[in-house]
Recover the amino acids of this structure.
């Protein structure tokens, strides 16, 4: 599985600039006018993970394969997007395909960059986008309720879904997102949400986009975004999309030196991915051999057979056992032979919950 992130926000807040920087691919137009992104831009990006480098130093594999994240740059949304304003609600459908949302919010002043509403106001901008996402979900629920109502007349088993859909609709009509719905963890709502993929149910990472001067110290705009995110139990990061774009062509060493000079310990990509992993409860385990050292993304709490399935379905179907070495033990004993000799290699069965950083080898038979 791969982490999928949609980048949303008002026009001219830095979405496409951030996309260009994060993907190191200048295939998203970044122009000083609204709606310069006509089609959603997608790119597959390697997830930075220094643990892979440490494993490869020991194994010396033919290749290294990072876990991946898919970024989708959604065209700028405006007030009324759910009803077809701007370029219409076609872009809202693209957001439904993602696992999480990065909501880019402009937190800097500039006379040369037009703001669609005439002035910078992060909380107003957030409200505009969040309202459109809720309104889009209301339309989706209304359509689903109409169909469920007809189905329930001939199948009484549908009634619980219909009742839950109506409760969720009542909640959304108060202007609150589905993520704050009191029954969001019930089996019935989970089933309903799986069918219609409510946008406002997705984890949100608010990205406060600043200019270079705003990196050193949080300005009032950034403080307001962080405060709002905390109140919503959401994640927030501070980035400078322009600087991220400038760093996109640098080597890792040059990039680290540049960040140090700016007094920043972590770049925008790392912040967004780390927050995305945390928000979705994702972790990585590793496989390490002479042909390949690779990271695999799974959900925290997955049992060994299900974790093995991300490599191949046969691994789950024919699972026998897993050989496991904790990452720190693998490094401390300089690889599998040393870890095995030190008694750090464990044999785990079907009920083992894979831990973040486990180095694993699966035995299976089909």
């Amino acid at each position: 599985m791969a982490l999928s992130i949609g980048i949303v926000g008002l026009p001219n807040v830095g979405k496409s600039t951030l996309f260009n920087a994060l993907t190191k691919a200048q295939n998203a137009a970044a122009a000083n006018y609204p709606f310069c992104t006509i089609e959603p831009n997608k790119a597959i990006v390697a997830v930075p993970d220094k643990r892979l480098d440490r494993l490869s130093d020991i194994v010396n594999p033919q290749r290294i394969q990072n876990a991946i994240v898919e970024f989708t740059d959604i065209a700028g949304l405006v007030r009324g997007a759910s009803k077809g304003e701007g370029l219409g609600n076609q872009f809202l459908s693209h957001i439904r395909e993602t696992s999480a949302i990065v909501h880019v919010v402009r937190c800097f002043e500039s006379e040369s960059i037009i703001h669609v509403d005439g002035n910078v106001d992060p909380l107003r901008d957030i409200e505009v986008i969040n309202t459109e996402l809720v309104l889009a979900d209301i339309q989706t629920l209304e359509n689903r309720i109409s169909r469920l109502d007809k189905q329930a007349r001939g199948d009484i088993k549908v009634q619980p879904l219909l009742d839950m859909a109506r409760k969720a609709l009542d909640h959304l009509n108060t202007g609150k997102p589905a993520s704050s719905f009191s029954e969001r963890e019930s089996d019935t709502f989970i089933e309903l949400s799986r069918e219609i993929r409510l946008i406002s149910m997705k984890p949100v990472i608010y990205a406060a986009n600043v200019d270079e001067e705003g990196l050193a110290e949080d300005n009032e705009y950034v403080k307001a975004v962080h405060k709002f995110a905390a109140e919503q139990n959401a994640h927030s990061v501070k980035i400078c999309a322009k600087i991220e774009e400038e760093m996109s062509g640098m080597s890792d060493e040059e990039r680290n030196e540049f960040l140090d000079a700016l007094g920043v310990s972590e770049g925008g990509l790392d912040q967004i991915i780390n927050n995305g992993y945390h928000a979705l409860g994702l972790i990585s385990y590793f496989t390490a051999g002479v042909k390949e050292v690779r990271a695999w993304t799974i959900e925290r709490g997955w049992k060994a057979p299900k974790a093995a399935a991300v490599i191949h379905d046969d691994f789950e179907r024919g699972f026998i056992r897993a050989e496991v070495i904790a990452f720190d033990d693998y490094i401390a004993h300089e690889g599998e032979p040393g870890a095995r000799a030190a008694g750090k290699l464990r044999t785990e069965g079907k009920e083992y919950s894979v831990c973040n950083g486990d180095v694993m080898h699966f035995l299976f038979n089909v």
